[in-house]
Request: fold
Amino acid sequence: MTNQPLTNNIMKTRNMKTQNIIQPLRNHLQPLALAVTMGLGLATSAPALITIETVLVGDAGNTADTRYSPNRGAVAYDFNIGKYEVKNSEYAAFLNAVAATDANALYSTTMATKCIERSGSSGSYTYAVVSGRGDCPLQYITWARSLRFANWMHNGQPTGAQDNSTTEDGAYQMSLGTAAVRKAGATWFVTSHDEWYKAAFYKGGGTNAGYWSNPYKSDTAPLIRAAPGTSRTGGSAWDNGALWGGSGGPIAVGSYNAGDSVGPYGTYDQAGNLFEQPETLYSGRVPILGGGGPYNDGPGTFTAQYNAISYYTEGMGEWQGKGFRMAAAAAASSPTYDTWASAQVPPVTGGPSGDSNNDGVANGVAYFMKQTGLLTNPGIDGTGKVTWPNGGNIPSDQYGTQFVVQTSSDLQNWIVPTTGVDNQAGFVSYALPPGEPKIFVRLKVTPN
Ligand SMILES: [Ca+2]
Ligand SMILES: [Ca+2]
Reply:
């Protein structure tokens, strides 16, 4: 986030609202509800080796998809899910951190062709992505490898030998073997079957919103189309999510990036590229979800029905058509402005002080209100009050830090009023003082 000069917003809005400024109101006030935001750069603590982009999956407590058996998609809590499949570049960073000696076979030489190459000898192994394939999804994952990667993320991406402080404990206690399940308090983990299903198909916007049939907000089967920027055609790639990509293998994550290829919460490639292996086991076997893999799968294999019945249930071994997607506890990294912005469709751009849909309401204020689409700035109600609904992205106890009401008589000097503010969980309002010749009020949002 960058600090946008506040004057830009003010002048822009002032020009748009000229009539409001020069036209006296009935009570001789000239209040103008002005919504502006200012981004604030925040220092981060320990530098992470990698950053896995996530999107927030809200609507906690949603109902399951009852169209198929078993019912899927009910998740009782908010969580973040990886925007993309885990990439070769991310897994290579993991290997370089913990696999100089690779006691648990996190690496396989099968990865060397299309994913990651290994150099040196045990004790001093180093790893590098195959040229040009850093943004492609990692193939040849196994269930155990994916869980150890999650432990490493949970533990803060440490460097060192494979032990309980790096790969063997954290989100999953690996000594339990296939009995290992996600531990309470896990901050990063491999997506569960239901988390994956909800992010792919749930319509969102409530707790009983229903489900799409395909993981790109559609009930319509995908079309054959070359992935943008590639020449992959003729059944080797599907619209709305790359399939396998023909003889070249999977393609860079997010290659299908048009609005109609994005999942309901902002995920990519749940319909294609690699199949995805969740943390969930069924009798010691792990399902593979979504479309993808080295088949020319028909559209039917993309559907919710397909994923509900776990049609493909793989063993525990590695396979070229299988990748995985991470998820994270909502409390660990959200809500944040960035996760919200990237989850919007189309994604909100320009930072909190921008207005990427040009509706006159700054992105940061829309984030505060947790509203999407075209909005209007709140006006003055009949009692002389301005009210901004607080949608819950920023809790009310953050008044004065992440958001604050300010007033000004000249649009130059802004002060925080000592009276008139009513800050509740669901809204913040300001009652304009009577008798002022002219006063402007704004909501200033500086989100984390
Ligand atoms: Ca996929
Ligand atoms: Ca806007």
Remarks:
- Residues 143-154 form the longest helix (12 residues).
